[in-house]
Specification:
The chain is α+β, with helices and mostly antiparallel strands and about 425 residues long. The protein has 2 domains: about 10-180, Creatinase/prolidase N-terminal domain (Creatine Amidinohydrolase, Chain A, domain 1, 3-Layer(aba) Sandwich); about 180-430, Alpha-Beta Complex (Creatine Amidinohydrolase), CATH 3.90.230.10. Helices cover about 35% and strands about 20% of the residues. The protein has helices at about 10-20, 50-55, 90-95, 100-105, 120-125, 150-160, 170-180, 180-205, 210-225, 290-305, 315-330, 335-340, 420-430; strands spanning about 25-30, 40, 45, 65-70, 80-85, 110-115, 130-135, 165-170, 230, 235-240, 260-265, 265-270, 270-275, 275-280, 380-385, 385-390, 395-400, 400-405, 410. A 6-stranded mixed sheet has the order 6-5-4-1-7-8. A 3-stranded antiparallel sheet has the order 9-12-13. It starts with 8 loop residues before the first helix and ends with a helix.
Length: about 425
């Protein structure tokens, strides 16, 4: 039994139809599952399904292959799902795998075969196709140092069928996956609600003397008890000067009186991510200086949300956010007009205190795929996460919500998570 209800089969039928419509005439496409990665001895890491396969059929099971061949001569060959054949022994040791009937009900793919028939089926169908679309991780920030199952599968296919022309699925998928269906949006809203519950729990817990890892544990407890499998990404729980390390993940220090605790955390639910950042005054009240910096970041976040709208270029958006942040840093006295006048356009003055981007796509992956060079569209979901990091003061403030772009405005999936300084202080001291 899964902790979550799968999305409807109709959702995956729509996804495959949209993908099929974008293929070249006579094309065949293949999607393979992720590896189960070993740790040591007989241990393995928790299985995480390939996001493209999840988008296309939703099967959260290892050793799965999806074949899409919209113009196959035989209609039965136009969609075929290959899954591991289940057995009584597998059921005893691992739990039963999907039956053919269950796979069809979940995915809407009528033709389900055991994985053992894959090679025989391909040998038959490649003679019909004009080309084959293969997928691989083409995320702009991907750093792949291991040989993945998809890489091995792609190599096997190209060596076995050298006469077949290969095309890339990634450009199609990056466009399609970036637009979320209403079902997906509701799934992500639920992940955000779980994150909210974790934050509400932590506001009551944080005080001088607790450790960062104890705070992490409070989130994890709440996430799991609400049906999540845990964090959508490695959490950042950074107190004091640690908050100035952008990807701090040690989470080992003591939270001290007078410090601010920055928490970049998000629950996963049903393979969809949430991504929230909040800051808490460890002693329950912000100092005047902390409050001024906090309010400056909050102002930029709220104004940035208004800039994200259909038709806007992401490049122009980030430039406008930079202007917003410049105004706030001038007001805080962290930079002056001379700094702005002499700034390098490639590295503006505000980058000294706000050195990362403001928004990224989010969905099946926390840093989800999308086409950065194309205008924003309704159905995109972005994070909005400005920050100010003052190393000389040991103070880092970042705030982050996840928003859905609509035709007329946006839908803040984290709109009910406290973010105003007064609301946070009241909750911590109630």
């Amino acid at each position: 039994m899964l902790r979550y209800a799968p999305l409807s089969a109709e959702n995956y039928i729509r996804n495959r139809k949209a993908f099929s419509d974008a293929l070249a005439p006579g094309a065949l496409a293949l999607f393979s599952s992720n590896d189960t990665y070993p740790t040591g001895a007989d241990g393995t890491l928790p299985f995480r399904q390939d996001s493209n396969l999840l988008h296309m059929c939703g099967v959260d099971q290892e050793e799965t292959v999806l074949l899409v061949f919209p113009q196959a001569h035989n209609p039965a060959d136009r969609e075929i799902l290959f899954v591991t054949e289940t057995s009584a022994e597998i059921a005893i040791w691992e739990g039963a795998k999907l039956t053919k009937a269950e796979a069809t009900a979940q995915t809407g793919v009528k033709q389900v075969q055991w994985l053992s028939l894959l090679e025989r089926t391909l040998q038959r169908l490649v003679t019909e196709c004009s080309c084959c679309y293969l997928h691989q991780n083409e995320h702009t920030r991907a750093k792949i140092v291991v040989e993945t199952r998809e890489a091995r599968f792609n190599q096997w296919f190209t060596e076995t069928y050298p006469h077949v022309r290969i095309e890339r699925s990634a450009p199609i998928l990056h466009r399609l996956r970036s637009i979320k269906s209403e079902e997906e949006i509701e799934r992500m809203r639920h992940a955000c609600n779980i994150t909210r519950d974790g934050f509400n729990r932590v506001m009551k817990f944080v005080k001088p003397g607790v450790t960062e890892f104890e705070v992490e544990a409070e989130y994890l407890h709440e996430f799991i008890r609400k049906g999540s499998r845990g964090f959508a990404y490695t959490p950042i729980v950074a107190s004091g000067a640690n908050a100035c390390v952008l990807h701090y993940i040690e989470n080992s220090a003591e939270c001290k009186a007078g410090d601010v605790l920055l928490m970049d955390v998000g629950a996963e639910y049903g393979n969809y991510a949430s991504d929230m950042t909040r800051c808490l005054p460890v002693s329950g009240r912000f100092t005047d200086r902390q409050r001024k910096v906090y309010d400056a970041v909050l102002s930029v976040m709220r104004d940035a949300m208004k800039l994200l709208r259909p038709g806007v270029s992401l490049h122009e958006y980030h430039k406008e956010v930079g202007d917003l942040m410049t105004a706030q840093l001038l007001g805080l006295g962290l930079i002056d007009q001379h700094d702005v006048d002499k700034q390098n356009p490639a590295w503006p003055a505000y980058k000294k205190y706000f050195m990362h981007g403001t928004s990224h796509f989010i969905g099946l992956d926390v840093h989800d795929v999308g086409l950065w060079h194309e205008p924003i569209r309704a159905g995109h979901i972005f994070t909005v996460e400005p920050g100010i990091y003052i190393q000389e003061e040991g103070l880092g403030i970042r705030l982050e919500n996840d928003i859905v772009i609509r035709d007329n405005g946006f839908d803040d999936l984290m709109g009910d998570i406290p973010v105003d300084a007064e609301a946070i202080e009241d909750a911590m001291n109630s």
